[in-house]
Amino acid sequence: PLESLLRFFWSLTRKKPLDPEGEESTFCRCLTTLDLVGLGVGSTLGAGVYGLTGEVARNMSGPSIIISFLVAAVASAFAGLCYAEFGARVPKMGSAYLYSYVTVGEVWAFVTGWNLVLSYVIGTSTVAKAWSGTFDDLIHNVIAEYLEEHIPMDSPGLATYPDFFAAALIMLLAGILAYGVKESVILNTVFTGVNVTVLLFIIIAGFIKGDINNWFISAEAVLSAIVILDRNLTLEQNETQIEENDFGVGGFFPFRLDGTLAGAATCFYAFIGFDCISTTGEEVKNPRKAIPLGIMLSLLVCFLAYFGVSASLTLLMPYYLLDTRSPLPVAFEHIGWETAKYAVAVGSLCALSTSLLGVMFPMSRVLFAMARDGLLFKPLDYMSSRQSPVTSTLCSGAVAAVMVLLFDLKALVDLSSVGTIFAYTVIAVCVLILRTMYMFSFRYKEDSGFIHRSEPFTVLGLIKPPSRSTRRTSENVNILTIIILFLVLILSVLLSDSLDSLRRREVWSLLLVSVLALTLVLTVVIIWKQPQSRTKAAFMVPGLPLIPIVSIFINTYLMVRLGEETWIIYCIWMAAGLIIYFAYGVHHSVQQQRQQEILQNIINRNIMDEVSAA
């Protein structure tokens, strides 16, 4: 029984080979690097550029929002570099799901894929809801008022009314995606082009009509603004507001460095979406070069757009007068360009359209990859004659449409971020493991199954490892990576919950954080000394292990800052996924069947050898 249990747990860590025997891609390699950049920019540069900039500038960063976006872009680039290396090494469909499958094993691959499905389904529903709401605003909320009057839904957790418009939009785009990948990408490129054109207009207008003095507003001017905005306040109350940073203290950093960094944490979510490029591995003409280049270029374009729009916005009017919901139309009204709000509306709808396409495109690909590997239900891997994953596209679209019809999505928005950031963390871990992985040989022993040649563990082996990667050095990195994850989690919790104690320089908090940080640095140095695999790729993450570990820390810190309700719903989702995996996926895993065939061939060969010898 114990041996069977050990074999079962060992089977959960089975890895998928890079080129599995018998698996042939049926997708058409028709996408270019430009197509990938359009897909990445479209999915990343969504409605956030039209709304998030005003919220962050008004409440967190002020004019220093451009620094917030710079910090967020650099942090996102760390995750992008990790994805780029895997895109060069594993040019297959599946994104983070596949990358974790070939590196850390099947059960973690399923967890990662299930997280991505969560992120994409909720992302599809929320973006479609935003598209519907933006369009409805242009026609004076006719749709919302009619549905609230005739089909109200007052139950807790449900939407106030069924959004048929958003659901129809999802199914329309699902139909386009199911029809063909090239047609979908062309449509995405057109919408992205319109969006970028509108953003260029906004940026140019800001630099022409803007006032540089809006970046250096004095504290006295802020105080006067408070008096104008609320004449009922006394002077003492105004001074209290200044101290409490309700309106900031003026200058380029009105909310000081803390506000700029808090803004950077929020702006980080604006760069989520580039990972959709990594799901196109079997549809790109030259994936080993096109995927890394597409990821990096899309992040660069998105940063320039966010940087330019936020700079333009804070030049057009003082940061404390910005509208947090519709900052750009209000800013153009401030300078007397009321008609420009229609251009902003067109750009916003195009941005939402590309964002919706960008989140639905990878959703179907991840489902297809998991079904092809046997971890999800077989019908999901059906391909049409036009080489498109029809079933997975339509099914995932239908689920998202039902969600947007029935549920209040405000409470679920954070779940979308959890799924994506979890995948970012897994990919950073996988880069550490993959770059130091030893491609060991194995032998078969009849009484215990597959066993690996091992080496004795020594502390000296950590400090003075051999010049080449071995199984022991690979295992050392695995152990050290687990230690790093533990340390990063504790540090993230401490920095999230005990930040006030650190600011007050309380001895216990400073001492604890210092000890943990020093231990983390020591662990990083030991990993750095371990030999790396000599297998090269078209693109490799520079600065290993620093960049992946920084990415892990950023992602973990963002996750621990989420609320309890988000984590409760997340645990329910993961529990449902694990039930599916252990009830279905384990028994239908294609990789398990491959290993059983290999094992049976070895046994048959041994029997034949014994017969021949007799």
TrEMBL record:
Protein origin, superkingdom: Eukaryota
Keywords: Amino-acid transport, Cell membrane, Glycoprotein, Membrane, Transmembrane, Transmembrane helix, Transport
Record protein name field: Zgc:175280
InterPro entries: AA/rel_permease1, Cat_AA_permease, CAT_C
GO MF annotation: an example: L-arginine transmembrane transporter activity
Any one of the GO CC terms: plasma membrane
Reaction it catalyzes: L-lysine(in) = L-lysine(out); L-arginine(in) = L-arginine(out); L-ornithine(in) = L-ornithine(out)
Cell membrane listed as a keyword: yes
Annotated TM spans: 65-86, 98-122, 164-181, 186-208, 261-281, 293-322, 342-368, 389-409, 421-440, 477-495, 507-527, 539-560, 566-586
Family: Belongs to the amino acid-polyamine-organocation (APC) superfamily. Cationic amino acid transporter (CAT) (TC 2.A.3.3) family.
Subcellular location: Cell membrane
Main subcellular localisation: membrane
GO BP field: L-arginine import across plasma membrane
Keyword Coiled coil in record: no
Domain Cationic amino acid transporter C-terminal span(s) in chain numbering: 539-589
Membrane topology: Multi-pass membrane protein
